[in-house]
Structures are given as C-alpha cells and as structure tokens.
C-alpha cells in the first residue's frame, strides 16, 4: 500500500538521506541570505496588479448591463481574485514575507478574500498538511475527506458518486477549504468537543457573512439598477477562482508519482527524511512566467513543500538546484504539462470510484498507490529513478 520505509523506497542509505538534507538546508540558507529589495519589488508589483485589476473590474461592472462591460468586469475581477488567493493570500499566510515586518503582508494579520477564515486554513494547511504531507490518516488533504485518491482508503459504495463529488468540490472549492478545519462531521457524530468546534463554527459564520455581504449585496448594490448583472459577475469570478485554485492544488498532489505514506513512516523521521517525503509526495507542472504567477508559483509544488516559507518568486531558481539534486541522488523529479498532470489526477479520481476488484494494478504498484514492496525481487539499484525505469522495462518485456 503506502510507503512505510522511505529510505528503502528511495533506494538511499541513511548517509545519502542525511547528505541530501544538508544540501537542501544549504539552499535555504542561500535564499534567506539573498532576500532583499528584488523580492520586495516583486511583492509590491503583485499587490499593485491585484488592486488595479479589482478597480478595473469594479468600474466596468457599473455598466454591467452591457455584455462587453460584464465580460471585462468579470475577467478583471477573476484575475484579481486569483492573484489575491494564490500569490498573496496563500503565500503571505505561509510566512513568506514575514521577514519584511510589514503588518499588511504578515502571516499573523492577513485575511484573504474567500470564505475560509485564515486561522482555520493556517492550522489545516500550514501545520497539518505541510507537516504530515500525504501521510494517510493524518493529512486531511489526501482527498479532502471527499475523494478516494489512494487504495489505502477502503472502497465504500458512496465512492461510486466520486466523479460528481469531484465536480462539486471544484466548483465550491473555497467552501470546502472553509469547512476543512472545522471537521463538522466529527462534531455531529460526537467525536469533537463543543468547546473546540463551536468557536470555529462562529468564526466561519462571521467570515461567510463578510464575504457574502461584500460580493453579493454591497458591491452589486453599488451598481444600482445593474444589481443582478453585477451579482452574477461576482459569482462567476468566484467560480473561476475556485476552479483554478482546485486545478493548481490537485495537479500538485494527485498526479502519478505523488506518493502516499503510512503513519509508521513518521517514526523517528529525520529532517532529511522529511525533505525526501516532500519531494516524493508532490508534483510540479510546467508553466511559463504568466501561468507561474497566476498559480502563485505553485507550479513549483515540490519546491513549495521543501520551503513553504521562502518567497514564491524564488521557486524557479530553487527548482534548478532541486533538479540537480534529483539527478545526483537518482530521484525522480515529477513534472509534466498542466493537462497531463490533471488528466492523470482525473483518471485516479474516476478509477478509484470503483471497487478494488475492478482495478488491474496491485495495491503496491499502481500509478496512484505505491510502496517499497513494488520492487520486491529486484536487485538493488543506484536510486529510485533507475529502479522505476528498470521496473517499467521488466513490465514491457513481460507483456511481449
């Protein structure tokens, strides 16, 4: 099933993993020492782009009864919300800009433009997800408690509706994220104490009132007779932002090669093994400068998981050094086009909607679920990348 012995799976010795961790630590130190005005200018330009697009969108929607202005306003507002969500909100709350000591962009004070309350997100994402990345049963981002994305989770009849659940999650992604840390189901089943859950529900309710009031009452009312046109524009912009955030996040966590891990893998985990788990549990997608910017530079999901609190504009240069380390230690660097990464993700979601008896691959050697047992009977190789290549070559020979 999932990986228990990460050293064995990666075909690395303890000394190899320790050396890898030391080299990754060196990259962190280099970037931290080099932070400065170049990064500050990048952040300020990002804030300016977000605000300028929002102003264009809001002004255009004053005339939203005209189709051309509705389209312009909706497009500008969608881009503004994407920038705020991906490159600002997500990255600011990771603490990427705390070194500036600017309260406007500090992780402790920032509140983003979506229904999820920032304290809830920082707990479920910054702490749970990034500490226990892809550990089945601990990282709730493995399927978001809605989707089965690994065979480590037993099949249930409700999984048959998984393709529909996936579409609903994509369209309402901000609401799914908002509910993520509240764990409402556990509370209703009596598994969470009221004194823990009720305050979270109240904070979530206040955030909903703020967001719904802003997007669906106040701003539409400001356009007078075009209230309905502006309301639909705001709803469309939120939908586009939700869909884009969903695609970016899913392409970083569920394509082939983004591995899962057992709880046992955390026992006595070293810093080097934590780094290695991030490298093996995440995936990138190829993007030019514009797509990278609008994805919050999460096209570099591997680099983000290695260094979640380093400025996102540095991920491209970090990626060059991480790829070199993957070559040095014979590790795969999982990446592909956005379309390929999402199609692999979609295939996994739809495939695992079916009972296991309909699946062809073994539970230890499938595109979405693998363990160190996939290499049973194979001679020891130089590293994981070579081992995977030899395993695929063996399969091709068997099929002939």
Description:
Helices cover 59% and strands 0% of the residues. It has one domain (6-327). It contains 16 helices and no strands. Helix 3 (37-60) packs antiparallel against helix 4, helix 4 packs across helix 10 and helix 10 (227-253) packs across helix 15. It is an all-alpha fold. It is globular and about 75 Å long. The longest helix is centred in the middle third of the chain and has 29 residues, at 194-222. One of its GO terms (biological process) is lipid biosynthetic process. It comes from Gordonia bronchialis (strain ATCC 25592 / DSM 43247 / BCRC 13721 / JCM 3198 / KCTC 3076 / NBRC 16047 / NCTC 10667) (Rhodococcus bronchialis). One of its GO terms (cellular component) is membrane.
- Characterize the main sheet: none
Q: Portion of residues in helices?
A: 55-70%
Principal-axis shape:
globular
Secondary-structure element order, N to C: HHHHHHHHHHHHHHHH
Helical stretch tally = 16
What number of domains? 1
Distance between the termini: 27 Å
Q: What value does the average pLDDT take?
A: 95
Features:
mainly alpha
Compact description:
Residues 70-335 form the Fatty acid desaturase domain. This protein is mainly alpha-helical. Helices cover 59% and strands 0% of the residues.
What is the topological layout?
Elements: H1 6-10, H2 14-34, H3 37-60, H4 67-92, H5 118-131, H6 162-171, H7 173-180, H8 184-188, H9 194-222, H10 227-253, H11 271-281, H12 289-294, H13 301-306, H14 315-328, H15 338-351, H16 384-399
Helix pairs in contact: 2-11, 2-14, 3-4, 4-10, 9-10, 10-15
